[in-house]
């Protein structure tokens, strides 16, 4: 430990601590803008400057370590003046039209400027303009970029993709797609981690809320909405609704108030996915000589995009099952249209997802199994649905709780945990056990694949068949796992991959909480919902069983193949 004094208070700090960490441990908060713990500690924004007694320079707190006897002032007049000038300089190169910014009210720069009482912009400069494809699901606004490097570092160090880089020099310095590529020509997986780690509004999803409002306003259109597992653990965060209050049933009430005709749950089709993917896996296990293992899950479109661009030779090892989002769309526009007695063309299928890549997945030319255009018409992120709730002036926290509609609103606890890393694997193992043993396992028998570790592995015995499985989240971890498998250093039968760290709970379309990585807390919420579910096995979902009885016949049937499977190589 070393002895330091912070703002007049003597205290002991950890030897290796940065000034920022030592101050935080003592309850003193120093503002930061570019800082991301362990990922971006470069002092670029110089907002975290502090004064050291006995020196005439100010130092950045995020990347300077404490030393014995240091006397630190974190908020002296000199520090405040320097911090203010630094923020004014950042604002001089920033498009300050907060009223039209997706991050207004949730922007570190905006709140810092407010806190410092900055009411004028003394150093205005001309802002860079660079064109961007506004149809692409991920949008960069160069005039809002503050060159903090967070997106560059998250994409490079966590996701291992290196899509972003610094471009130009001097006053024209900005961040752009690396290697002079256009974003659509890059290998961007569309995980959206750059968005959730941007402190300002320089990165965002393509806004599809206007299309959703138009569908809701059209009396001829039947709007069918599905809500993804991970959305229920996060939707209240940016509306200021506490976790206890922000239940999925309250979200259902809000969606009903907005005018959606039928409100369904993606956990229904997550259970359907387990029936298909579980059966496919058992088939591949039996014929392992012809089908190389491991089989990889296919429900995360960020991961599927990654595999296609980075390891195209392995695409054949993906499960052919479509993701729950797409299975839902195909069932809604076939089976459910029939139940309603309407032409599928009249259905507008909307999904609420924690994800940016889902916008792209829905637009793939192969995702039109019902034969009337895209099976899923509009994909909204959790942030977008929250904006729509605000635009409708719905006070969601004060609404009562309402049920999903039947039949596509029924889901099991196994379907709910799809939103957490390890959840798809656990759900699949619960049902694979049942399919091989003819009886249910303890629903928590496979809990060893839970938790926030980026790469987990476990061995199980499936009624006499030994099984080695792995679960990874984050694309950097995914690359390491694939290389280990290719080098013969690891061997698995079944691997779950989610592009976003922590799984969909940490998805690129979720509410942004500055300074927090909230996936772990959201996942606990999902596991709690599973624990309290009446049904904890996908194969016990009565609505799923009815779809098989009345329409699909059985898992992997001809019709199931037509509607619920795809060739990922196309
Ligand atoms: Fe996901 Fe999935 S879990 S991919 O993370 O398999 O987005 O939540 O909806 O489709 O069910 C996302 C979440 C989601 C699909 C399911
Ligand atoms: Fe989307 Fe989930 Fe995959 Fe992230 S992990 S890219 S949120 S599907």
UniProtKB/TrEMBL annotation:
Enzyme class: oxidoreductase
Cofactor requirements of the protein: [4Fe-4S] cluster; [2Fe-2S] cluster
GO biological process: one example: ATP synthesis coupled electron transport
Coiled coil regions, renumbered to chain: none
Protein location: Membrane
Annotated GO MF terms: 2 iron, 2 sulfur cluster binding; 4 iron, 4 sulfur cluster binding; ferredoxin hydrogenase activity; hydrogen dehydrogenase (NADP+) activity; iron ion binding; NADH dehydrogenase (ubiquinone) activity
Keywords of the record: 2Fe-2S, 4Fe-4S, Iron, Iron-sulfur, Membrane, Metal-binding, NAD, Oxidoreductase, Repeat, Translocase
EC numbers: 1.12.1.3
UniProt-listed InterPro entries: 2Fe-2S_ferredoxin-like_sf, 2Fe-2S_ferredoxin-type, 4Fe4S_Fe-S-bd, 4Fe4S_Fe_S_CS, Cytosolic_Fe-S_CAF, Fe_hydrogenase, Fe_hydrogenase_lsu_C, Fe_hydrogenase_ssu
CDD domains: fer2
Xref: Pfam families: Fe_hyd_lg_C, Fe_hyd_SSU, Fer2_4, Fer4_7, NADH-G_4Fe-4S_3
SUPFAM superfamilies: 2Fe-2S ferredoxin-like, 4Fe-4S ferredoxins, Fe-only hydrogenase
Domain 2Fe-2S ferredoxin-type: 1-78
Main location: membrane
Cellular component annotations (GO), alphabetically ordered: membrane
Residue ranges annotated for the 4Fe-4S ferredoxin-type domain, each copy included: 135-166, 179-208
Record PROSITE patterns: 2FE2S_FER_2, 4FE4S_FER_1, 4FE4S_FER_2, 4FE4S_HC3, COMPLEX1_75K_1
Record-annotated 4Fe-4S His(Cys)3-ligated-type domain positions: 78-117
Keyword Ribonucleoprotein among record annotations: no
Family indicated by similarity: Belongs to the complex I 75 kDa subunit family.
NCBIfam families documented for this protein: FeFe_hydrog_A
Protein's name in the database: NADP-reducing hydrogenase subunit HndD
Species of the source: Caproicibacter fermentans
Taxonomic lineage: Bacteria, Bacillati, Bacillota, Clostridia, Eubacteriales
Name of the coding gene: hndD
